[in-house]
Write a structure and sequence with these properties.
This is Copper chaperone. The chain is α+β, with helices and mostly antiparallel strands and 72 residues long. Helix content is 31%, strand content 35%. The chain has two helices and four strands, in the order E-H-E-E-H-E.
């Protein structure tokens, strides 16, 4: 298992975190998503998965939810 923290901008509420969580948990191997919401700023998104995830897949999932993965 590995946990990676991503920075996501644009989230402001529980609905936002739910949308991001839903999209990220669709990725193969993801077992848990925890979000430290910083409303209106950049939030820390902790993703636990069986193996390291491709950043392009994470970025696509966050985009699908309507938010932006900050540059790493």
């Amino acid at each position: 298992m590995t946990t990676t923290t991503y920075s996501v901008s644009g989230m402001t509420c529980g609905h936002c975190t739910s949308a991001v969580t839903t999209e990220l948990t669709k990725l193969d191997g993801v077992t848990e998503v925890k979000i430290d919401l910083n409303a209106g700023g950049t939030s820390a998104v902790h993703v636990t998965s069986a193996a390291a995830l491709e950043e392009t897949a994470v970025r696509a999932a966050v985009d699908e939810a309507g938010y932006e993965l900050a540059a790493s």
